[in-house]
Amino acid sequence: MVEFSKLNAADFVGEDDELDEEPGEVIESAPPLQVGEEREINSLGLTKKLLKRGIGWETPEFGDEVTVHYVGKLADGAEFVSTRDRDKPLIFNLGQGQVISGLNHGIITMTKGEAALFRMPSELAYGVEGMDGVPPNSSVQFEVELISWITVVDVCKDGGIIKKIIEKGEMMGPPGELDEVRVKYTATIDDGAIVAKTPEDGLEFYVKEGHLCPALPKAVKTMKKREKVNLVVQPHYAFGDDKKDSNTSFRSFPQSSVLRIDLELVSFKPVVDVTGDSKVLKKILKEGEGFVTADEGASVTVRYTAMLEDGTVFDKRGLDGTDAMEFVTDEEQVIAGLDRAVMTMKKGEHGLLTIKPEYGFGNAEVKQDLAIIPPISTILYEVEILDFIKEKAPWEMNDQEKIEACKRKKDEGNLLFKNGKYRRAGKKYDKALDFVSGDIPFGDDDLKLVESLRVSCWLNTAACCLKLLDFHRAVNLCSKVLDVESSNVKALYRRAQAYMETADLHLAELDIKKALETEPQNREVKLLQKSLKQLRAESNKSDAQIYTTMFSRMTKDGSTATKRLKIDNVENNNKPLEEVIAMELEKTARMYS
């Protein structure tokens, strides 16, 4: 429109440029306007009078495409422009310099269907130049009705994919990189020619694998279920930067074409990376109930169909007359992939698991009831969790139940430790500690037993940490024991082991010395002391070689340190220089130990 295209400097005031506050800030911080009430809505003199209340609370943003009716008048009431006369509303994008600044900043405060009167100084209107029917430096007023607006999103923030939301979606979404989506679309180029179209019921693809053109998965990741949009896609997002990115069906069309896609996200199935390495993926076919998952140690009941990638079924449970499967999670009663996935599922959830060999049957050929599983097979489980019973939490138990639960978990950990399953054993000990945590109050009669159980679990967990090379945690756990029992030989012994592994030899020697003061004949501690001496000797030898290299470079300079070493060497019957340095280092170590 001619009357809206004549712009002045104020037309280009952005959201953060010359305004003291964000547009609409006064309205947001003050009570809502009542019909007939007028208020200044920014520091540049723009005022708003509410004529008719709109629907809801949502307002458009800069960049959105709005549809409005307006009537423009001078301060004396003389009309200079109107869409009402033509009965044709104006459609434009907010904040894009298509209308005067005062209208941009006024309309972003309006709700759908609202009518308002905006009064603005010349700086927010037509400035010193004026326009047809508007003298220079004139204040003006606009009566505006916001009929509707379409949210516009710059998907990649570079203008390459512009998304107009035609119909808002549901709460579910947006989909993630791993998810499987079902979409409907029609893609056309500038002349209206259709270049691609889905079947009536749409089609499915995985977001990470892409489809049609580079723009489609990028746009889909910003959408909600049932959302309908119109995409305007520039060539580099439509046809790709090279041939491998381009859809073969596009090659007959000019590669400089702008692509327009009417797109609907019909539905999507979330895909969860259960193990974090993409080797156990769970596609949710049906959401479960509530928010609680089976978790570790739950007694679960499931039904499933297990198959190879080619669809060959090798096992069924709870279907076709077979009994459902019952097992306890995190107890290695089923393959690791199924176990880990079920622990993430809710009651009633139905999912499709894709399990790589590392979490399935590995390199072995396995004979099942219905088929043989070849070595290194990726397998699929379509599984539904029918029910589960979680272990009682500590807060649900009385003192005696907590103590018994702690003993039971500790015994389970001991058995796992004997079988070399140190990681799982450590988890059992951690679980046992949950039942006797220092945050849980116990009666006086139980305190001694509870403290003994804590010490035992700390020591056992430290033993697991040593096996798993987690030396810093081993030190922390042993220190907890020594805070309670300062002369506990097992804690001193295991902490000394950890210190030796982290090259804290002096601290290791202190723990060994204290342990031998308590138990002078302890064979294991003596053997550790011997190992420590060997480590010290090796460390001193290594240090000596380093210093020998240093001093050999200094020999030419005739330094005092070199001369001193030569004198010491004479006193030591001209032994090799490395040996002299090692002896000096050993003297120093004894001095500080």
TrEMBL record:
Assigned protein family: Belongs to the FKBP-type PPIase family.
Pfam families: FKBP_C
Keyword Ribosomal protein: no
EC number: 5.2.1.8
Organism: Coffea arabica (Arabian coffee)
Molecular function (Gene Ontology), one example: peptidyl-prolyl cis-trans isomerase activity
TPR repeats: 489-522
Domain PPIase FKBP-type intervals: 63-150, 178-269, 297-389
The entry's keywords: Isomerase, Repeat, Rotamase, TPR repeat
Reactions that this protein is recorded to catalyse: [protein]-peptidylproline (omega=180) = [protein]-peptidylproline (omega=0)
SMART domains the UniProt entry points to: TPR
Name of this chain's protein: peptidylprolyl isomerase
Lineage of the species this protein comes from: Eukaryota, Viridiplantae, Streptophyta, Embryophyta, Tracheophyta
